[in-house]
Amino acid sequence: MQRIFLIGYMGAGKTTLGRALAKTMNLEFIDLDDFIVSRFHKTIKEIFAEVGEEGFRKIERNALIEVSEYENVIISLGGGTPCFFDNMDIVNRSGQSVYLKPDEKVLLIRLIKGKHKRPLLADKSDEEILQVIREQLAWREPYYQKADITFNASHLENKTDIHLNAEKLAELLGNKLR
Question: Is this structure's pTM higher than 0.85?
């Protein structure tokens, strides 16, 4: 039985690398945000608008508890998931945890490219995005550091990079699980 949780900041590559890793390891892939969206038939933004962040974090925790019982899965968590309640303890009790940590410059480039998809960043300048990254990482890093493995996710720019990193991470996880 394998249960692997991918954590890290938005834009770290949790979904991108998670899908490739699941394929490499022949495991199911679950994105926790997508799991919540399918359960509630609402977007994360809509859930936030209805119940606020505190309500969303409770929904998220319950979803985490549910998926933490699934077997043979790679689970990609939202960037803030590890930082609330005892979520990181749940993760580490339930399986292996991997902190995907790209370089700050790489994170900035990815978030600038995709800022239109991220409501928190959509109206921000590049400098403001960098400031948000630094502030949030300063707060979140202690939670992320509780992961079993920290993996440099800076090189996920094409299919070859993604595949090679998935193989490298699968090998690391294999060694850790023995």
Answer: yes
Give me the percent of the chain exceeding a pLDDT of 90. 89
- 3-state secondary structure (DSSP) of residue 73: strand
Q: Where are the domains of the chain?
A: 3-159
User: Are the CB atoms for 100 and 151 separated by under 8 Å?
Assistant: yes
Tens-digit pLDDT profile for residues 94-119:
999 999 999 999 999 999 999 888 87
Return the C-alpha torsion angle 56, 61, 63, 68, nearest 10: 160
Question: From CA 140, how far away is CA 8, in angstroms rounded?
Answer: 9
- How many CA atoms lie less than 13 Å away from 131 in the CB half-sphere? 7
What values do phi and psi take at 45, rounded to 5? -60, -45
| Options 3.40.50.720, 3.40.50.1110, 3.40.50.300, 3.50.70.10; CATH of 3-159 | 3.40.50.300
Q: Rounded to an integer, what distance in angstroms lies between the CA atom of residue 5 and that of residue 98?
A: 6
pLDDT value for 115: 87
How far apart are alpha carbons 162 and 102 in whole angstroms? 13
